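pipeline/complex-builder :: batch 7 item 3
reading input block
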Amino acid sequence: MQYAVIKKSDLSRWFDSMKEKGKIYGPKKKENSFVFRPIKEFEEMSLEYIPTILPPKKYYFPQKEFLFKFKINPFKTGKAIDTFEEFILFGVHTCDIAGIQCMDVVFNEKPVDPNYLNRKEKMTIIGFECMHYCDEYASCTAVGTHVYKGGYDIMLTDMGEEYALHINSEKGENLVAGKKYISEMNADDKSKLKKASDEKLKRFKNEFSAGSEEVDRAFDKGFFSPVWDDVGKRCVGCTNCTAVCPTCYCFDVVDEVSLNLNDGDRYRVWNYCQMDDFAKVATGEDFRPGRNARQRHRYYRKFKYSVMKFNKYFCTGCGRCTRACMAKINLKETVNALLAERRGQ
Amino acid sequence: MKTDQASQDLLKTSPYKPMKAKIVRTHKYTDTEKFFRIELDGNKELGHMPGQFVQVSLFGYGEAPISICSSPTQKGTFDLTARRISTGALTPALHKLEAGDTLGIRGPFGTAFPLDKMHGNNILIVAGGLGIVPLRSLIQYILDKRKDFGDVHILLGCRTSKDMLYGDEIASWQKRADIQFNCTVDKGDPDWKGNVGLITSLIPGMSINPKQTYAVVVGPPIMYKFVIVELIKKNIPDNQIVVSLERRMKCGLGKCGHCQIRNVYVCQCGPVFTFEQLREMEGECHEGECYVKA
């Protein structure tokens, strides 16, 4: 069964049936924002949410990730690969699923990253399609993540009284198997889904002022553009944009020594190209001085370098960098400024 | 099935875990530069080529990328030379280690000097300051396989004679009839009998057959600018000018992002690049490294 249907009123008991499979993380309201948190009861969740402060990345690429234990004297290293527990991400937007697909290509590239791959293997993703824009900061249509394109186990789409389920993996099959309240999609449901999707597509329009070919060209020619100086002048170097990005994966490696000063753990921790010492070497030479150059680097990693390397945008259009920016640097505006400059406006 | 097993095994080992290694000899060349001869646990070969680097691990202090300064023709051990950076975490601790102490090694990482292409050609080596460290690996390799190469000319520049590394070896290079060796210091002192002046001053007077010459240049960023201009004046093609770039490699695996220049991860695609490749990185290279308005 590739497409199925569940009544909205049955979603709660379907959720309950997943609890035995592993810990469930879902979106939850926190003051004026939303966050991913462990969810015990279905009612805790807010499925109608705008992108969470941090993407669910924290569960598959933790902010501080244990690498291995060591002993200083005598020199010894402990087991480096952890076995992880099964877990479920519930209610993930298509933009954040695109973020997971970006991480997949990065950490599957040789040399592969066993930490990520082992964790990912234990992850089940239940997607939740947005039928309306979250807010004015999203640019998911421009980067093509407003509709689902794989990368999940099950995708939920709101059809009014029911949710459509697109089952995309064996893991997904297992979650619906034997559930009497989940039925295979009939012709009627199919036309309902099509209608809902068509209406949605009318609402979602390219947020950039040009298509991807022109965006490509603008980044191709825009390396020395004054746009970067403008962005650089406003940037306060707080690193918020990179901290909240679902496709940022830069990290640092740090040691923590216990009180006996002999045993310790090595970790990797998130690190950001927007920090002023990110490219500085021990002798003091800074190889990427200037907020203009660092902001440019961030944009090029999302729109150019990843396209060169993986043929993929590493911007998921989630809008988090814009929402989190203290200087109101707006991704849509920056890209549009670059496009306008290309057109000679 | 076999590949499945191989990929399963891959997921059981961590590329972050260093190998145990032992220091077998140290030598302090200057106040800040110390030499370490290192043997991997179980007498394993490191299996590097000249130009590559390792990540040195001192638990509690972290890791730092350090150039390998010995040739792979040296079996059983390899050499490192590290400058002590007083503001850094790792190198002051590393400098306290002596023969018999242990440390962790990951690697070798990065690209090597293009020896296949260099074979049969004349070699011009330009070393400025600490640039001699990775170049020592290349020089030793060339001297061990001397007949594989054409004319070999080494130019070495330091701030003062007191900053010079590998003095004993340099004395032996100077005596060899099958290589030309010139040395210069920025500032002379009463004991110094050699050239005084910048390393660039040694190039104009050389007679170079540009099509058959590979120039390998390693030094501080600012040196590249001036040396590369002189090499271009000698008509050495951009793809025969070879450099090694310093960057902050944290992981060595092309992931952590610290060493990136534009779309290039220096730890995987470098640290050895040709000047032709550097031109493509315009705007993200240090202005010294990437002098393109020749």
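note: Chain A touches chain B through 53 residues (CB under 8 Å).
queue -> next item
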